[in-house]
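Dear colleagues,

As part of the handover before I leave the project, I'm documenting each prediction I ran so the next person doesn't have to rerun anything. This entry is a single chain, and its sequence is reproduced below.
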Amino acid sequence: MIYPVNSLDKLGFDEIKANIRSFCMSDMGRGMVDKIQFMANYDQIIKFLKQTQEFKNIIKNDQPLPIQSFFDIKRLSDKAKIEGTFLSEEEFFQIYNSLLTVFAVIKYFEERNGLYPNLEALFEHLPIEKSIIKNIEAIIDVKGKIKNNASKELAYLTDAIAKAEQDSRKKVDQIYKNAQQNNWVADGSLTVRDGRICIPILAENKRKLKGFVHDESASGQTVYIEPEEVFNLNNLIRDMEFERRREIIKILTDLTDKTRPYVPILYSYHNFLTKLDFVRAKALFAIEIDAEMPVVLKDTRLKLVNARHPLLVIGAKLNGKAVVPLNMHLDEKTRILLVSGPNAGGKSVAMKTVGLLQIMVQAGLLVPVAEESEFGIFKQLFADIGDDQSIESDLSTYSAHLSKMKYFTEFSNAKTLVLIDEFGTGTDPQFGGPIAEAVLEIINKKNAYGVITTHYSNLKIFANHTTGIENASMIFDNIHLQPLYMLEMGKPGSSYAFEIAQKIGLSKQLLDLAKSKISVQQRKVDTLLIDLERDKKEVLEKKIEIDKLQRKAKSLLDENEKLKAFYDENKKNLIKEAKLEAQQIIKNANKLVENTIAQIKEHKADKEKTQELRSQLHTELKKNEIKAEKAKPATAETTEIKEGDWIKLTDSGNVAQVLEVNKDNLIIAFGELRSVVKKNRAVKVANSEVPKDIRKLSRVTHTQSAADFVSEIDVRGKRGDDALYEIEKYLDKAIMFNMNSFKVIHGKGDGILRKLIRNYLKKYSEVSRMEDEHADRGGDGITYVYLK
C-alpha cells in the first residue's frame, strides 16, 4: 500500500514507467507497463526480478531472441470469434507473423533448456498449434496477399481477367494507332478515366470515333473516349473482378471459420507475446541504468551499497557526469535514519533514492545498486514530500503535512517504510519542532522504518539518545563551501546557513546582526556540528589515502610473492643441476682412479709404468678441475654485460636475461616478469650454462610472442565478462610490444557488447582514442583502438 497515491509521482516512479514504456515494441507491452504496481508478495517479486535478470543476460551475453513482429492478435481473435465475420488478408498476415515469432521464441528456449527457467515458465503448458499457420500459408503468400491459386474458381477468374485485359489493351492500342494516323488524337497518350482506358481525341473529331465519352479537358478542346469495340470487353472485365472479389471473401470467410476454434489458443499466444515484450522492455531499461538484481529478503531490512538514483543515472550518461553512490542501512537496531545537512546538499535526493529503489524492487524491477545490496519486503510505504496545500479542501501547506502525520501515527507498523522530507517545517519552529519530535517518537514506538530529512536541532538531539533512531548527515566541504553529496551515518550535520550566506555575498554586518539574534546554546550546537563535519571530512580523506596505499602495498606484495616463487624455483633448479654436475665429475674421477689402480696391478707395480699412469691421472684430474672452474660465473670486473646477455644474480643465484642496459642499472627478465637490478649485483654467464627450460621460456615469451602477435582480437559470440578478460590480456601484450593500434572485432548485434568494451577501455590511460572501422570493412562491428 502506498499513501498518499501521488507519492509514486513525487518519488519519480511514473517517470520510471515512462522510460520502460519507450522500450516496448507493442501497445500490449505498454499497457502492461501502465499496470506495474507496488507488491508485497515475496514469491511474485522474486519471479519478476529473475525474469528480468534472465532477459538481461540474454541481451548482454547470448544470441538475440528471434523477435520479428508483435501485433494485437487478441483484437483480431475477438473479431474472428463472431459468427459470420471474416478477417482480411492483412489481418491474417498479422496473425501469421505473430505466430512465427511465438514458435521461434519457444524453439530458442528449448535449445537452451534449463538455462532460463523463469522465462521458460512464460510459455509453460502453452500448446503448439501449427495447423493455424499451415491453414494461413495455404491461402496467404509471403507478402501478405491472397494466393491466386487459393481456390480453383479464383485461379480461373484470375487467368480470365488477365487474358481479357490483354485483349482489351491490344484492341485499344490498335484503335489509338489508327486515330493517330488520321490526326484525330490530341497531344498526350492513352489515359485512364473512371477506371477505363481512354483515347484523348480533339473535340472537332469526337464524332469520327465511335465510343463512350468519359471526360473532357478544362478548355473543352480534348475529349476522352472509350472505343465502342472495347466497351463491352471492359464491362466483362469489371464483372469478373467483382466475381473475383466475392470469391476472395468466400475464401477468407472459410479460413476464418477454420481459425475460430483456435481463438482460446490465440489468446494464450497473445498473452505470451505481451509478457515477452514487457519483460524485454524492463531488461533494456535495466541495462540503460546499469541495474542489478539485489538480495531480496522476507523480513523488513534495507542495505544499500553503491546505490544510485535511476533518473540521475540517465541524466549523468547524457551529460557525461558521474553520480555519487549512496551507502546506508536500516535494520532492527537502526530503523529510522534522521538525515541533516545543508540545503542543496543531497538530503532529499538520498531520501527519494531510498524510496524509489524500494518501490522498484517491490514492483519487480532491477535497480542500480551493487549485487550485495539487500531489500526487505514492506507492506506499506508512507511518504510526505513537497507541498500538498489544497484550495478545495481549505488546507494550508502545514495543515496538509499534519493530516499526513495523523495518518502515519495511526496506521504505521513494523512493516511500514516512512519517508518524510523537511520534517516539521511549514510553521513556527518553536511549535513545529516539538510536534515533529512527538510524531517521530510515536512512529519509532510503532517499530516503523524510515528515512527523514530535517534541519531541526531538537530532532537531532532526540535521535542521538533514542534507541531505533540514528543521525546521519550529508558531508559538506566547509573549506570550499560546497556539498559532496555523500551520506554518512552516525553524526548529525550542520545547515551551514551563515557560511553559505557568506559565500553568496551577504554583508558581514548583516551576518553579525543575524548571529547576535540566535541563542548562545544554538550557536554552540551549530559550531560543534561544523567542527564534527570538518573532522569527518579529514577522516574521509585520510581513509581514501590509506585505501590507496593499502592497494598499492598489496600490489607490491603480490608482485614480490611472484618474484620470490620464481627465485625459489630457479634456485632449486640450479642447485639440482650443480649437484648432478658434481656427481658426474666425482663419478668420472672415481672411475679414472679405479682404472689407474687396475693398470698398476696389471703391470705388477712396475716403477716406470706406475709413474706414467700417475702422470696421466694427474693430467685428467687437472682437466676436471679446470672444467669445474669454468662452471663458475665470471666476475663483473672482467666481463662486460650488454643487451641480450644472460646473467646470474650474486646474492640469490637466479639466472635472468638482460633486456636493456641503463648506466649502472640492468633491466632483466625472469620469464614474463620484469625487474631492475644494479650491475654490481650481476655477473655474466655463458649461454651454454643457462638451463634449457629457462632459455626456452625466454624464447617463447619474448621472441615467439612478438613475432606471432596479431594486431586484432575477435570476441564475437563471447559473454561480456569473458570478452573483457580476453581484451585485458591482449591489451597488456599490445602495450608490452609497443603497438600503436589494434582492432577489436565484436560484431554489431544490438550494440551492447560494443558499448561494454568501449566503456571498459576508456579507463586505461594508455588508450588515446577509439573509432569505428570503415563502413566497407565492418563499420561499427569493429572498434579501432589507438594507443599512446
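The domain at 295-496 is CATH 3.40.50.300 (Rossmann fold). Residues 536 and 542 are 10 Å apart (CA to CA).

All the best with the project,
I.
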